[in-house]
Each structure stands twice: as C-alpha cells, then as structure tokens.
Queue: 2 jobs
Job 1
Amino acid sequence: MTEARLVALLSPNRSARKGSRKQSWPAKLGGAQMNRILFLTVSISAACLFGAASGRDLDGRYADSPLREWFDHLASGNGLCCSVADGEIVADPDWESRNGHYRMRLENKWFDVPDKSVITEPNRAGRTMVWPLRNGTVISIRCFMPGSMT
C-alpha cells in the first residue's frame, strides 16, 4: 500500500479517497433513519403544541374541580398562566398594593409585580395567587391574581 493511499484512508476528510464523492448528510442516511428523524420531529412538535395548550394539572387532582376550565383559560398580558407554570397561593401578609401597583414576597424576597403580569378579571378562586417562573436563581412572575385581603 502506498503512503498516499494510507494517508487517504486515515484522513478524516474522506473525500481525499480516490473515486469518492462528498455526500451531504441526508444522502448518507438510509430511508429507515430518515423516517425515524421525521417521526421524532413531528412527535416533539405535537407534544409541544398540545402540551402547552392544556393546563398543568400533572397528577389529575383538579380534574373534577368546577374552576378547572376557568383556570385553564386564565391569562395575563404574558399569556396563559397555567400552561407553563404552577400557581401558588400567596398568604395575605406576603403581598401588598401600593400606589396602584402590587408587590409580593416569594422565597423570603420581595418582588414588584409587573403590571403586565396582573390578571384583571374577577378572582373566582378568592385567594391571592402567583405563577412564578424559576430559572436557576432567577424568578420572574408570569401571572399574579390579587385576592380580597380578608
């Protein structure tokens, strides 16, 4: 075997081989592999679309709640609340209204609630609730629904 042929065989650039053509990645895949890739792409896309459309009652404990439909459609200026975050009840001492804006305490830290996050429709649940989004140590408020402060 000649040295040039050996270098061509060991080269990461396989197009250095005599008589070989460089193929694009789809041409290198067989029909079964392409079908699997297509199936996975469609499945993941469908899961994202349909998963985001329904509420986050992951364990089914609120399936028979008379407020379920209301919660599923509850939205702030940021979009649907229950689609991406779980709602949490906020105790009365942990939120306040001052000069037309809301503040709330979450994990022992006070947050100013963005006006866009405030739910403006009547609170049928009665309790103050927040839908926080946690990304590592950063917390943002997707939705906030003030209660009656009783």
Note: Strands lie at 75-76, 79-80, 88-89, 95-98, 101-106, 109-112, 129-135, 138-145.
Job 2
Amino acid sequence: MALIIAVRRHPWTRKTVPWFFALILGVAVVAAGCKKAAPPPPLPVANDVHVSLQKLNDVLSTNTDSAVQESMAKIAAGLRYGYDYEAVMVELDKLNQSPAVTDPQKKIVNEVIEQIKAVINQPKPAQ
C-alpha cells in the first residue's frame, strides 16, 4: 500500500502572493521617491577663487539680445574649458558696455569681472 501524502496549499496563497509583491514594489517606489532635492551645484572655483557664473547666468537669462546670449556662451566655455581668462574678460567687457544690459545686470557683471581679475592676478602654481 502506497502512502500518498497530499500537499495541501493554503487556499489564499494564489491571491496573496501578487498583492505581497505589489506591496513590496509600492514601498520601494515610495522609498526611492522620498529623497531630498539635490543641493545646488557649487560655484566654479578657478585657482581658489569662486566665480559666481550661475548668478550671472540667472540675471542675464531673461535678456533676449542675441549678442548677450552669445557672450554668455563664450564666458561659460572660457571658464569651463581651459580657463581662457583673457577671452572671458573681453566678453565681460562687451556685456558691461552693451546697451541691452540693464544697470542691475551690469552690477553682477562687474562682480564677476572683479572675481576674474582676482583669478588672473593670482600667482601661477609651480610646475
């Protein structure tokens, strides 16, 4: 006589397992979405001097003059790639003399000019 053992399954297993996995997935999604917002990027540092390029970008982003936007792109590229300070100073002087730039915007441009001058006047690191 063969002993047949029937494995009894719990009656609600088929219904419970998908809900259990859905609950786990929901908790994971909520946990992933509850991160704090990333802090703003730090100011660009050139030879230990902070250049407030983001502040300049924020102020001049509302200016629709194409020459101003072109100068901003050249300034950002000059600071980002190779630190071409002389070209950056030329573009900042163009912005400072542009009639399309308002007086509050020129104040920020002058702040950035002073920061770039501080970078240029620093002694070069020994190689």
Note: Residues 45-121 form one domain.
